[in-house]
Amino acid sequence: MDDPRTLFDLTGRVACITGASSGLGRRVAKALAAAGAQVVGVARRAEALDDLKAEIGDKAGTVVADIAERAQIGTLVDEVNAKFGAPDIVIHAAGVNTREAADDVTPQGWDRTLSLNLSAPFFLSQAMVPAMKKRGWGRIVNFASLQTTRAFPGGIAYGATKAGIGQLTRAMAEAWSPHGITANAIGPGFFPTELTQAVFDDPERAARNADQTCIRRNGRMEDIDGPILFLCSKASDYVTGQVLMVDGGFTAK
Known about the structure:
Rossmann fold; alpha/beta; single chain; 8 helices; 7 strands
């Protein structure tokens, strides 16, 4: 029997992470690099990406791009591939939440949310899958949410995309797992990121959310490390089409 610790070793793998300039995307990039992968961070903010590259070092590359611009996907993939070769792993951490009440949702806000949260993960994966098929190995990790299955105030557009991510993940698995490519999703609970800043700025609200979990606390950035390493490594060879909730048991209650 091989040493079980080698199951999580990502040496020799290349990972592309969208939304890598901040929050969970940034944490994921650092975790995968620490596990041996070469990582390519994709985001719109060049300065934040430069900071990430400086922190990780030579194992990191960056591409400044708006992944919601569908016509630019081909160019984006070419730029990503130019860093360390075609990725074995793609993680879709980029996202937006306009927090508009149902009566106030605008066509512009709706379209932007769907483009970034739902369309971009599909079309970027579709463009990267051919190289994974040639290797017979690949990992796609989408970012789901508590709102994949729960309705929150002001979350109708965001929730629709995250429910869609659940089904997109299953459909990706059905289409591509016969070629050695697993597709799964992580569903974070409340973590202290830019996307949830409004929640953590309200101590009473943050405390209520913590009480809703089984563990009785909100997420810490390090809580994402183990789950993402599992889904990106050999350890999850027989796991596909699943949404792994990393929420302290929030959705268990």
